[in-house]
Amino acid sequence: MRMYRCTKEAMVPPQEKEDYLANLNDLCHALFESFCERRSIVALAYMMHAWPLVTDQPGVYRRLLQTLADLRRWHEAELNDTEKFLTARILSKLRSRVSLP
């Protein structure tokens, strides 16, 4: 018997939420490592505002979505191609799951 938790966003099986969270954390970790390697202080400051993800609450996802969207909006020229790809991938995953007010 599968247990489901009810959230405002959607009814999602617990294992799917854990997989989603782990996948997002993996993508964010790769992005963080790239920022560290390049010593991209501004990008690191943005990233540290919303990551690491420690829970699967919608507010956590919204904060990460808004933070990375702001990073791309205001500092996209400072991102390399890999970072642009990773942020686009993360934002896409977040937008598919999170509704913004």
According to DSSP, the number of beta strands is 2
Helix content: 55-70%
Radius of gyration over C-alpha positions, nearest whole angstrom: 14 Å
Order of helices and strands: EEHHHH
Q: What is the beta-strand fraction?
A: under 5%
Main sheet characteristics: 2 strands, antiparallel
Alpha plus pi helix count: 4
Number of domains: 1
Strand order of the largest sheet: 1-2
Averaged pLDDT, please? 86
Structural class: mainly alpha
Shape: globular
The end-to-end span amounts to 34 Å
Low-confidence stretches: 1-9
Q: Can you walk me through this structure?
A:
The chain has one domain. The chain contains four helices and two strands, in the order E-E-H-H-H-H. Strand 1 and strand 2 form a beta hairpin. The protein has 101 residues and is mainly α. It has a two-stranded antiparallel ribbon. The N terminus is likely disordered.
Q: Could you provide a short overview of the structure?
A:
The chain has 101 residues and is mainly α.
Which labels suit this protein?
69% helix; disordered N terminus; globular; 4 helices; mainly alpha; 101 residues; two-stranded antiparallel ribbon; 2 strands
Q: How is the topology of this model organized?
A:
Elements: E1 5-6, E2 11-12, H1 14-38, H2 41-50, H3 58-75, H4 81-97
Antiparallel strand pairs: 1-2
